Amino acid sequence: MSTRSVPAATQPSRAGRRLPLTLTAVAIGWLVAYLANVPLWDLLVYRVAGLGPGSRLGSGVHFFLADTVKITLLLVGIIFVLTVARSFLSLERTRALLGGRRQGVANLAAAGLGVATPFCSCSAVPAFIGFVAAGVPLGVTLSFLIASPLINEVAVVLLYGMFGLRIAALYISSGLIIATAAGYVLGRFCPQRWVEPFVYTTTLQGAPIMAGQRLSWPDRVTLGREEVTKILRKVWPYLLAGIALGAAIHGWAPADFFARVAGAQNPFAPVVAVVLGVPLYSNAAGILPLIEALHDKGMPMGTLLAFMMSVVALSLPELILLRRVLKPQLLAAFVAVVATAILATGYLFNAIL
Question: For the chain, what are the domain ranges?
Fold first, then answer.
């Protein structure tokens, strides 16, 4: 009795044919879960568990459960899609796009590319060395490094889901302006003398810049799935801590406390927000539940955005890492320029929103 063997060459093609159907089914399941999230917790918390929607306990529990599921679903979808998209863009291509442009235009291009590339504070030093070693102007490099954590794509989508298109668009535009202007201003100071000497002696072969490689669609999907798992493992403590704190504020913290400390009538509210935000270490997924809860308590959106930007763009761990490549003079100038821009954004948004 003979058996019919399937040529190995046909296996990838069969997997390739199944891939669109699999992705479509996953996308539909994700959409159904997202749309059913709040109604499901309304039923379970308010009807099955019998907690009153107006009670502190009911409101806090509902906030924690619904936001945990909502933000987890958003993170999974955003990380997967962006990882697949980023597999078409290598760091070498990013670096090449920044060369040969005049100041100002190059800063804006760098800020735009910073939004699209997967850098966080942990990769700030390798990215800085790689760009400087490649001959990218220092001010342009700083625009890139400011924009990359500041305009976080996860924050954009979560802000859109929580507050709508207008707030998300304002966040993007203000972040681009801050990164472009800050890099341009810092570049005008001729800051090369304030960079640690070893950065300029690093060759491209020693810099952590990898050329892009050709990937199949199954490879890109695998990368997306692995990135989702890696990032969720990394951020889940901050995610749960942020949501828990947000739930506590949402359910128990008195609104008049936040109105006194950082309400619209306090002219120094954005200053307080930035001073409190810099020492904190979190990411967009962890800080946005807190932003949502504080917004529900009546804090102005400009103050909240200033707080969020200071956490993600001027966090203490990132500044400690940057100290490895920047001398204290440039690090202090970096903090002063970015903090001033964030403060201006907070006051502007409080005035127009």
Answer: 13-86+215-251, 103-210+253-352
